Amino acid sequence: MNKSTYVDGFVIVIPKKNTAKYKKMAREGLAAWKKFGALDYKECIADDMKMNTGGGSGFSFPKMVKLKPGETIWFSFITYKSRKHRDAVNKKVMAYFDKKYKNTPMDMPFDMKRFTTGGFKVEIGM
Fold first, then answer.
1. What are phi and psi of 106, to 5 degrees?
2. Count of domains for the chain
């Protein structure tokens, strides 16, 4: 990975009962982003949320997302060559899904109000 790599990151709260539905949606996303040129695509489910927060701040992912019983946290990321490459890939992916689901309402397996995303320029990496 070189310094010019660009990453879109996502933190998503998924009701555990919707895990299979989310995985199906994520697999479709993986296929689309791969088809249109993303370098990497990962969907990661929370496994160790009791990590030392360093300095005893006590701020954690569960606190950050206000995790409720019956929910789990997913951290996802997609890697690109650059922000320009990200913009081009995402334009193609969105056009693909707009066409595919044109007349189909999207029933998201999570609360979009508790979904967060951002683009990140890699400064240090392997």
1. -85, 120
2. 1
CATH assignment at residue 13? 3.30.70.100
Q: Is residue 80 part of a domain?
A: yes
Tens of pLDDT, residues 27-80: 999 999 999 999 999 999 999 887 655 656 667 888 888 899 999 999 999 999
pLDDT score at 1 = 47
Half-sphere exposure of residue 11: CA atoms within 13 angstroms, side-chain side: 12
The model's pTM is 0.86
Q: Which residue has the tokens 């913009």?
A: 87
Cβ atoms of residues 96 and 31 within 8 Å? no
CB 22 within 8 A of CB 108: no
